[in-house]
Amino acid sequence: MNQPRTLDEAAAAVLDNGAELQAGGTDTTARRRGGVTRSASVQIPLLPALRGITRQADGTTRIGALTGVAEISAAAGLQADYPALTKTAGALATPQIRTAGTLGGNLLQHNRCWYYRNPHFSCYRDGGEGCPARTGIHLHAAVIDQGPCIAANPSSIAIALLSYDARIDVRGLGTLNVADLYGDGSDPTRDHLLAPEQILTAVTLPAPLPGERAAYNRAISRAKAEWPLVEAVARVTVSDDVVTAVAVAAGGIAHTPLRLPEVEDALLGHEPTPENLFSAASAATERCSPLPQTRYKVELLRDTVLDVLEKAIGAETS
Fold first, then answer.
1. pTM
2. Where are the beta strands (DSSP E) in the chain?
3. Which band of pLDDT confidence, cut at 50, 70 and 90, is reported for residue 37?
């Protein structure tokens, strides 16, 4: 494995050798062992600027891209200001994966479609033709069809960052929002839009709104160590019994993580009554175009969004 000392050296090594950047290695190692990829790895340098959680003078919080998922979930400052982020981080995968995995790695991991992960199949994602999942087994696939590839994006942390309006710093590209990191999902050959030599260095979260509340939940087929079928995050601010700010994002439903403006628009400016919450959650399904095996996700999406809205409304203020 190539171990450069600077980000410039890492980027150059990728370009010179056709290699792949590696952080914690939980995804790259699995793909290499499975025969999905045979490219060399370039270890991202363990620079101090790429690690740690910093509350900045303007109230924002910066998290280095090599900060561990377990560290994020346990950080007291993040638990107070961004509870949906820490709950998301604490729920994913296993303790071992959370210890090894990093923020940047979670955001940039490859999709988990078993056809893509099986070297005996060929698909759009690996440079081939067609999507065998569409006519094969697609129980865990997207319910909102964005393009040729129906694999659901696997990054749970991206859902939380979308809801918190986070910004992402990328060497060689600048600063962008979370949605721009993934695009519109129409390119089946990519799980994100970064070029191989562009290195994600940090995420910055804006200061929390006064009185905002947040919640995260996932629907899974077993209690632990399972990819979510559907997951959602809601941030809500209520003043004088009226919703004055709301952000809702969901995962497991599309080739990219998604904000749900339909839900937000249905709730903003209204009282958070049970009827209004249900109506807003129902709007989450407006873009759904399920395949035969993902029809169950339509109702599951509605109910998961309803659950996080109810939990956020009932949560204590930060």
1. 0.95
2. 20-22, 41-43, 53-55, 61-64, 167-171, 174-177, 199-205, 213-219, 230-239, 242-251, 258-259
3. confident
